[in-house]
Amino acid sequence: MENIITPSPSSYSISLTHDTDSRNSSIIHKLESCKSLKELKQIHSYIIKTSPTLPHQTQQLVYTTIISISARTSNHVPDITYIHSLFNKLENPTIDLYNIVIRSFNHSNQNPLFALLFYSDLLVKGLIGDSFTYPYVLKSCTLSYALREGEQIHSHVIKNGFVLNLYVVNTLISFYGACGAMENAQKVFDESPERDLVTWTTLIQGYVKRGCLEKGMQVFYEMCEAGVRADEMTMVILISSCAKLRDINLGIKLHKYIYDHDLNFDVYICNALVDMYLKCGNPTLAIKLFNKMPLKNIVSWNSIILGLIQQGKFKIAMNVFKKMQSQKVKPDNITLVGVLNCCANLGTLKQGKWVHSYINKNGIKTDGFIGNALLDMYTKCGDIKKATYVFNHMKHKDVYTYTNMILGFAIHGEGQKALKLFSEMPKIGITPNDVTYLAVLMACAHCGFVKEGFNHFVNMLKVHNIKPQKEHYGCMVDLLGRAGLLSEAEDFIRNMNIEPDGLIWGALLAACGTHKNVEIGKRVMEKVDKMMDKDKDKDGAFILMSNLYSSENRFRDAFKLRKIMKERKIKKSPGCSSIEVDDVAYEFRKGDKSHQQTKEIYMLLDIMGKHLKNNDQIII
DNA sequence: TTAGGGTTAG
To answer: PPR repeats span which residues (predicted)?
Structure first.
């Protein structure tokens, strides 16, 4: 590499003595060969030092060349001060040069609005933007969501007669769409005499981004009527919009459109389709398409894994992850969040720990999504110590981090710790949300903090303007019920601002079971029976009540209830738990005899039960 | 040197 820090004349060898043309081309060649902005600046200063009396024309050429090189080279981040200082030295910068610089800010990691400085500079110099300038400047406004500035540019577009330019029209629609000003976007669209696929797609995209999914679809139908054929990009936008609409029939029609119009089933289209089928509740079609995909990228794997998780198919999702590993596809943060979610729901602590060590080995930061997913996994898998460790080591905590940790403490019976954490939130500027309050109320319920629970329940609306939902009311019933305040719980339900459902009455019924209160239990049971539509959802309530009768020696009532269950074909759906042994998650249901070692399992269970009854310490 | 730049996470 050349020594450019202390350049010698031979290393640059710019021929300053030859004729003008050859000297100019030598300088340009040297500047063009620069690999960084630093090098460019060094050569510039070298030229100034060694030839302070360059002819005016050559000087201007040097400035123009430096500006265009520093602006157009992708690894040269535009240095706004430097470029601006060079611009000031130029007598007549051309509109082309302005365009190059303005464009460079759209591709840099600097504030795109810097482009506007150059645009106003251009106006000061008495120049007028051309058909390239406006798309570039509008793009800068789009990237910065600068509605007011963009509107001003729009007025310049009208004044300077560029409203008929399709590139300008399309960028205007995109700009208004990004800023959420869909009325303006639609107006530009309506007033344009010419429209192409980009115009239609941009308008559709605008509506979809705003969440106006049906309207976006309606524009697509209008586009079809206008005889414009969609391309792959249009279809991806429509399919993902359809996924959000959860409309499988529409999804199938869009799928057919791709076939009928001979579009490419590229990786984007396939990913969008897989995601759509999963979100619309058809994992079979999603898996079929996924298996047929000729080319898969990380998004394909993530879409299928996360989609299966959304469907509650954690084991299948885990198997897909294993397949992904066997094909040597490197998981990214999104995959890991999904896998941790699986571990949390399957209770597979060992696999969760493996993911944690993978994260550490690969230097992935345990912040944000990843940190929260790790925390969730440890709390749900019952390792509160590790969960606390993860929490304490997270640098950037957000409302999800706090909610997770509070919930962790709540379900582990550490109510004081949960409430202490909750009290820390406002101090560091994190506002609790509805789920945070659910965790707080759970903590109070699990630890018998009736007074605190009520205070928090009131503060939800009073302090944070969060309207309590059914789940919060359910927690309050649970809180009173667990504390044995059964009549209070019954009154609470009757005075609620929302209509109680079977689940809320069910929470009270469970408390009646715990505290052996047959009278209230009987009343509540009748309520549950009336409230719940489907008999099959009442199984838990019937069993609870029948057990309550039995525990109070009212066997005749218990028998009567069981008889009703039989007549109405109400069957108890078996509770399910899972255990992880040697990386395999085993699920168990009551009466399940499908495991090979069923005999040994039940024998051990029997022994453990006896020990537990005697309060023995169990060592296996 | 032009425009839409598309798919996956609470």
So the answer is: 196-230, 266-296, 297-331, 398-432
